[in-house]
Amino acid sequence: MSANLIVKEFLGAFTPFESQLEGEAGPITFINTFVLPSTEAVEPFLAHWNDDGAYMKSQYGMLSAQLHRSLGHGSNVFVNVAIWESLDAFRRAFQNPDFQRTFSEFPKGTHMYPLVLTKVAVPGVCVN
């Protein structure tokens, strides 16, 4: 991807991120956790994420997105939660070479932990 952005598998996950992009599903939830190398990286990260978010928002199939920040003084963890109409729509936007090139604009040493998920129904608790 990029020397600045280090893509890591979610701790203990059996399915690598690239494998999560295979097949067909929809709608999907994309949860991406970013761990920044320092608190000085927060402003450059937010500026870059704003550009990436605008790009993704302009893509077919993106339904919503929300960036979250962990609580506490000096927090360096951000989580993006995005809902997409389908895995195919997300895959096309994410794998676009122009989008992939923007990864070099993240603050150097940023770690990214991406997950692609689908809803699970649990009777009496949540619906699919």
Question: What characteristics describe this protein?
Answer:
single chain; about 130 residues; Alpha-Beta Plaits; about 25% helix; globular; Dimeric_a/b-barrel; ABM_dom
Protein model, in words:
The protein has 128 residues and is an alpha+beta fold. It has a single domain, classed as Alpha-Beta Plaits (2-Layer Sandwich). The chain is 26% helix and 27% strand. The chain has four helices and five strands. It has helices at residues 17-20, 42-57, 87-94, 97-101; strands at 5-7, 28-35, 62-69, 77-84, 110-117. Strands 1-5-2-4-3 form a five-stranded mixed beta sheet. A hairpin with a 7-residue loop joins strand 3 and strand 4. The relative contact order is 0.31. The mean pLDDT is 91. This is ABM domain-containing protein. It holds the Pfam family ABM. Residues 37-102 form the ABM domain.
How many structural domains?
1
The coarse overall form would be: globular
Per CATH, which architecture? 2-Layer Sandwich
* Low-pLDDT runs: none
The first-level CATH class is given as Alpha Beta
Mean pLDDT across all amino acids: 91
Largest sheet, order of strands side by side? 1-5-2-4-3
Number of strands: 5
Into which percent range does the helicity of residues fall? 25-40%
- What is the strand content? 25-35%
Output the radius of gyration: 15 Å
Structural class: alpha+beta
Protein name: ABM domain-containing protein
Domain ABM: 37-102
Pfam families: ABM
Organism: Oidiodendron maius (strain Zn)
